[in-house]
Write a structure and sequence with these properties.
This protein has about 180 residues and is α+β, with helices and mostly antiparallel strands. Helix content is about 45%, strand content about 30%.
Length: about 180
Amino acid sequence: MKRWKAFMLPLFLALLAVDFAWLILRLNGYDIAVFKQTGLLYPVIITFSILAIVGAFVSRRAFLATLLLSPFIAIALGILHFGSMALDWHYDELRSPDGSRTIIIEHRVATLGESNCFYQFNEVIFGGLLLRRLEGQDMYIMHRTSESGLVVLGAAKAIWDENKAVTFPSLDGPKRIILP
């Protein structure tokens, strides 16, 4: 049992380091690719699970504190998950013709009489592990068709300009994003 306790401090410190690094990445417009679609849900579940394991091995008080906090954490996670479900963002990948650049198109459609399509763009970097948000290049297109968000944007007919920009022939006219 004592051997396991010695393992818990490095595990706890590693958890703090990973959470801190992830927070710094998010504050600077980056995200971890596998967590993009879930928002904060999976990182919080992973963090809380590791804290519960560490608490169980360190002391009964720490474990009981973790158990007492769990209903509040579950409620917060439920609210976060419900919020992400209500917005209904979809994620699609678009590769350059030579395969050297990839962007992730986040899109959602809100309909009330006419359809409003919202788009955000992320570039895949660091071997597909990280996403860099393309700041200031969000798009909004209002239309009165039953087409999906990607069809409205014209993603299938995107024109790559020497891997420095992408032009979409949308229903609202050409839309261009600049790649860093």
